[in-house]
Amino acid sequence: MLKLSIITINYNNAAGLLRTVESVASQTSSDFEYIIIDGGSSDGSLDVIKQHEPELSYWISEPDQGIYHAMNKGIRQAKGEYCQFLNSGDYLLKPDVTERMLRDMPQCSILYGNKIREIGGRRIVEKSYAGRQITLLDLYRSTIFHATAYIKRSLFEQYGFYDESLKIVSDWKFYLITVGLHNEKVAYRDIDMVWFDTQGISSIQKELDRHERTEVLQKTLPAPILSDYQAFAHEGVIIKRLKQNKLCWFLILNLYRVLFRLDKLRSRE
């Protein structure tokens, strides 16, 4: 069995698709297959696909019902033990990235590395969780970046495919269930893997993202846990805002020190 299936979904993003395909085609590893699921593009994406057809294990171009419908189509065609979703516009940083990630892989359900993106004109390396155990609280707050993750294909058979009723956060829901609630083993490698295209739908439609996350949390987490996490998150926001007000935070810290000293004096009496 091949170790990895790299799956790219695309719709009318020929320039981004070309960057993605070229980065995959340049990989030194031979232990992966490459699948492209195109949503019936009309912008020249098919020319890119046909140009690289010899390097593809499978491709199709037809209308679909959204991002996660396209991803699920890719999973059903995949033959690798793990799946990586490298959508058009994102690209692998160096030709040896896949080879390094696959070398002596640990026993795990999900393996992930680092993503690179540009923020305010600066190149930022993002090392999510940096190898520590990922908790349910972590996933309540954030996620595992999709393009840097090798996800065991059997997880989709065990827990179900991506929820196609969601437009943005179905991959996060999948992590919430598999890692957060069922403690599937996650491993990390400190390898800069993927350049992240910040023009993707999840980066732009922030309001839809928040709406879908709220809906998923209400349906997925037990009510007592959700209530505790919401309270915890609210307290975190308050503390963050207090820290931004330096004078206010200075006064609170000094009040805490005074109360702590008074408590120590009382304990000596």
How do the strands and helices of this protein lay out in sequence?
Blueprint: E1 4-10, H1 14-25, E2 32-38, H2 45-51, E3 58-61, H3 67-77, E4 82-85, E5 91-92, H4 97-102, E6 110-119, E7 122-126, H5 136-141, E8 149-152, H6 154-159, H7 170-181, E9 186-195, H8 201-204, H9 206-220, H10 223-244, H11 246-268
Parallel strand pairs: 1-2, 1-4, 2-3, 6-9
Antiparallel strand pairs: 4-8, 5-9, 6-7, 6-8
Record keyword descriptors for this entry.
269 residues; alpha/beta; 2 domains; 9-stranded mixed β-sheet; 46% helix
Topology, number of strands: 9
Q: Whole-number radius of gyration? A: 22 Å
- CATH H-level superfamily of the largest domain: Spore Coat Polysaccharide Biosynthesis Protein SpsA, Chain A
Q: How large is the share of residues in beta strands?
A: 15-25%
Helix content: 40-55%
- Element order, helices and strands? EHEHEHEEHEEHEHHEHHHH
CATH-derived architecture of the largest domain: Alpha-Beta Complex
Largest sheet: 9 strands, mixed
Give a short synopsis of this structure.
This protein has helices at 14-25, 45-51, 67-77, 97-102, 136-141, 154-159, 170-181, 201-204, 206-220, 223-244, 246-268, and strands spanning 4-10, 32-38, 58-61, 82-85, 91-92, 110-119, 122-126, 149-152, 186-195.
